[in-house]
């Protein structure tokens, strides 16, 4: 009997088994490994004066005559924070570039505007410490250096590209072999021959940029914090990016002063440090709570956002309301929590983006359309859905509000309601506020939602659920597979 072929087959089996175990081990470790400092933060509730926090929004919509209108508040407030920064300025934005793909729907050059404000403030105040934390998407994962970041660095602004390798992997089936075979090669813009997915025209990137992109992970935060001449610390958390092709998107933000700004600064400095930044910025002393204030707020990131949302939703009972305005909604825990809340007699309403536009690329409605079908059908129509009426831009808002008796709990910021955004994979940042339903801030946020829901003030904001109803079982189960495995961009 010839034992040679049998030994070769045995060696191949052992080799394949060893490769599988290595892949499995790397994948498991990268999903479960300890989180770096500055992540999964919950600052705890802090009592703050009502006058120290402000709700802002951007809206793109059509008026009664069909003419497109733009209301924009968010980045004017960002620029004001930059212009009045005294000694410290730290900002972190996911998209900070002028790349637009095939989109031509740019309302204003936000990346240039923000860069110019940063450059002007740094030149006017050379001693100002400025740290810009950014996601590697802005230099296409090392494959296409960002001219804006180079400009900022040239005047002494510290540009920190987030080290995404320190984060857990949301797409382990792909990311494990990428870490084994590709990660250690690094990247070089000198070897660029493939089309750039974020820029139209002749721009080229390397194969390693494309392979990095397929990990589907990001520093998705959108925050800014600075001190002011009057000694106050001011901050903002938003869903908006200083990205030209995103400048027409609808977004929300909270601007505030005091202890929340300190919490953001501490988290952002930790992210900068684990990404290689070696600078030094001292945290301000802790702030005293506002005695007698009924408004309480917390800075929450990553999975802590979901934990607090679930508490707010499960705390809602018959006679309470849940109102959600969201770009992506797919997280299974929150889907189930909404269905249970509806069963308890809670009124549940969602305004969702129809997921049909992505910088000039037409999408097929996943995940929002399959998820909305599940919510509407499982609740027998008690859960109500309306779609924001986009025309090329996106309803990029991330806002969740739930009443618990006489109080309103609201959470807004960078986090979509998806496994990637809420499962300790992406970096995310939200503010959760708890206040009486009669508080001016609560009334303003609820009025914002009702304006869109009811098409008030002559605006044509939303359309009925039937306008984008999708009964495809194939798309539903594709969404479920994509959500569970991480093989998706949402």
What Rg do the Cα atoms give? Answer: 23 Å
Per DSSP, the total helix count is: 13
Count of the separate structural domains: 2
For CATH, the homologous superfamily of the largest domain is named as Endonuclease Chain A
Which residues sit in consecutive blocks of at least 5 with pLDDT less than 50?
none
Enumerate the strands of the largest sheet in spatial order, edge to edge or round the barrel: 1-12-20-19-18-13-14-17-21
Instruction: Estimate the mean pLDDT confidence.
Output: 94
Largest pleated sheet: 9 strands, mixed
**Structural class of the secondary elements?**
alpha+beta
Overall, the morphology is globular
Task: Give the CATH level 1 class of the largest domain.
Answer: Alpha Beta
CATH topology of the largest domain: Endonuclease, Chain A
- Beta-strand residue percentage: 15-25%
How many runs of DSSP E, i.e. beta strands? 21
End-to-end Cα distance, whole Å, is: 56 Å
| Level-2 CATH architecture of the largest domain | 2-Layer Sandwich
**Helix content class:** 25-40%
